[in-house]
Write a structure and sequence with these properties.
The complex is a heterodimer. By secondary structure, chain A is mainly alpha-helical. Chain A contains 5 helices and no strands. Chain A has one domain: Four Helix Bundle (Hemerythrin (Met), subunit A) (Up-down Bundle). Chain A has helices at residues 7-26, 33-62, 68-90, 99-125, 131-152. The N and C termini of chain A lie far apart (52 Å). Chain B has 17 helices and no strands. Chain B has helices at 2-18, 21-34, 39-63, 67-75, 77-110, 114-131, 134-144, 150-158, 162-171, 180-194, 197-209, 217-245, 256-301, 316-333, 339-365, 368-371, 378-404. Classes of the chains: A mainly alpha, B mainly alpha.
Chain lengths: 157, 409
């Protein structure tokens, strides 16, 4: 004989599931060492790509090969992309043994984001005089990102 | 003379109309990371779309009836509904991606936030679909899309090592810092981008709109067999420019602005302006084609009046579906979802829906009751079956690869 589902019990179960889901969803993600390292590498790689895009952009602007408005959007996208990557990675919970690396990575990502913001500001203002200085900053930032990437090591796949 | 002009126009529009936002982004992404080592996937996809576009074009020319009308009649309402739902959802997703693509392209010109551009683009697309003649939609944007040939000129101007590129293309050599899983994911994405279902709906329904008869089969084949492969070459040219300029700098492509940078490097502002024209034309044209395809598929399935050759008040279901699809696409984009992400997803999910789109076409093209003397021959059936196996393999692999590689990261 089939029994009818108790509506109160069903509602309580659904509430419990929803609360559990919300609790899990609100908690910071806690990947293990290996997957955290992969994410760190990937984040550094993506922000390096944004820096390289900004570098190429400024070089082409110095040669007057790109429209100002096009350049604004490319610079803005590079900055926004780096910001998203940085905030996403920052929300990952490292294992205790990775705390020092976490500092290195987040600092490198954050510094890169600052430089990309300066690039966007200069591009929007058409401040051509600042491009050379920004290119040097981008070069240093890219070197720093590469250094941290090497410290972490490659992806494990 | 008029016939030759018709062939030339058809071929040119096929070239210009082949590339859409999915091709632009995916080919640039792949080019920057893998060079032309995945050109074979585009090549296979182009042959596949030629096989099935020719088949569906022949069905339209011989029967004078569109694909979905015959599919429902031949395979029954249940399987027909499955075919309709899967194909329409993918086409709707692609429609949203194309409207997003137009917005991103215009954003590069006017530097205004894309959320302000999306409603205007959606309104323009809807107005064009409602008011413009079919020939204008087909020819104008196809011809303007030829501006993307600037990528081929840029590739030539950049002077890549052609020997190395040929070696890469012929040996399918994966760069050492990439994984085979990612390589396979992008192979499926390129295949899906080349064989997007809407291309077949639009092509065959367009044939009915233009009143093709069996006498037009030759012209139709010329459009398919010359236009699509040349369009595929255009896709590979985008990959080459990305490989030469973005690859050495380790730039991963995640925005439309990056796709145009190699053209600026090679040809400066004039080249970039032409590329921008190509972006807008190609994405706008594809938005029109996908929007029409959504309307075609629903109206044809339910046996309602459809098409641009009848007045809007005589094809109410068709135009209401287009209006609702446009509103839905704009609404999705207004949630601030990244249009490039929608594009990537539409390309992968296209691969998933391919068997449900192409199997019924193969079935109908083999039915002598519809096709008479123009029924599929042995060669067409061998090719059709081989590609059906390929699309099933791609469909099965697409989602696991997407999850495994986290969308190719």
């Amino acid at each position: 004989m089939r029994t009818r589902a108790n509506p109160a019990r069903l509602a309580a179960t659904l509430c419990a599931l929803a609360l559990t889901g919300a609790a899990v969803g609100c908690a910071p993600q806690s990947p293990d060492h290996s997957s955290w390292r992969d994410q760190a590498y990937e984040s550094l790689d993506q922000v390096s790509s944004s820096c390289a895009t900004a570098t190429l952009l400024l070089e082409q602007m110095q040669r007057h090969r790109i429209f100002g408005k096009y350049a604004q959007i490319v610079a803005l996208n590079a900055e926004t992309n780096a910001g998203k990557v940085t905030s996403k990675f920052g929300a990952e919970q490292p294992v205790p043994s990775d705390s020092a690396t976490y500092q290195h990575v987040t600092t490198a990502l954050s510094d890169a984001g600052d430089v990309l913001s300066q690039v966007r500001i200069a591009v929007v203002r058409r401040d051509a005089a600042a491009y050379s200085q920004l290119l040097r900053q981008l070069s240093r930032t890219s070197d720093e990102l590469s250094k941290v990437e090497q410290q972490i090591g490659g992806r494990t796949g | 003379m008029k016939k030759y002009l018709g062939v030339a126009l058809g071929v040119l529009t096929a070239i210009g109309g082949f590339v859409d936002i999915g091709d632009l982004v995916t080919n640039a992404q792949v080019g920057a990371r893998f060079g032309v080592s995945l050109a074979w996937a585009t090549g296979v996809g182009v042959i596949g779309i030629c096989v099935f576009a020719e088949m569906s074009g022949r069905v339209a020319a011989v029967s004078g009836r569109p694909t979905f009308d015959l599919v429902r009649e031949r395979v029954g309402p249940r399987l027909g509904m499955l075919n309709l739902v899967s194909s329409m959802l993918i086409t709707l997703l692609t429609f949203a991606a194309e409207i997003g693509g137009v917005s991103l392209a215009i954003q590069l010109v006017v530097s205004v936030h894309e959320l302000l551009i999306v409603p205007v683009v959606a309104l323009c697309v809807w107005l064009v679909l409602w008011r413009a003649k079919f020939s204008i939609i087909e020819n104008l944007f196809g011809l303007l899309g030829l501006a993307l040939l600037v990528f081929a000129v840029a590739a030539w101007h950049l002077g890549p090592d052609w020997g190395a590129l040929t070696h890469q293309a012929t040996h399918a050599a994966k760069p050492h810092d990439e994984f085979w899983s990612t390589y396979a994911y992008y192979a499926v994405a390129l295949f899906g981008a080349a064989m997007t279902p809407y291309e077949v709906f639009f092509f065959s329904s367009g044939g009915v709109e233009e009143g093709w008869t069996p006498d037009d089969i030759g012209v139709m084949r010329a459009n398919v067999l010359i236009g699509f492969p040349l369009g595929g070459m255009l896709s590979i040219a985008i990959s080459v420019t990305a490989w030469v300029v973005l690859g050495p700098l380790n730039i991963g492509v995640d925005s439309l602005g990056q796709v145009g940078l190699p053209v600026a490097v090679a040809l400066g502002k004039i080249g970039l302006a032409i590329a921008l024209l190509g972006f807008v034309a190609a994405t706008f044209g594809a938005a029109c084609e996908t929007g029409l395809s959504v309307g075609y598929s629903v109206a044809q399935y339910f046996g309602a009046q459809w098409g641009k050759y009848v007045r809007p008040n005589e094809a109410v279901v068709f135009h209401v579906v287009i209006l609702l699809a446009t509103i839905a696409a704009a609404a999705v984009l207004m949630t601030d979802v990244d249009p490039v992400l929608i594009t990537e997803m539409s390309v992968v999910f296209s691969a998933v829906a391919l068997p449900l789109t192409y199997l019924p076409i193969l079935v109908v093209a083999n039915d002598p009751d519809y096709m008479g003397e123009h029924v599929n021959g042995r060669f067409a059936n061998v090719l059709g079956t081989v590609f059906l196996v390929a699309v099933v393999a791609a469909a099965v692999a697409a989602i696991p690869l997407m999850i495994w590689t986290r969308m190719g990261q």
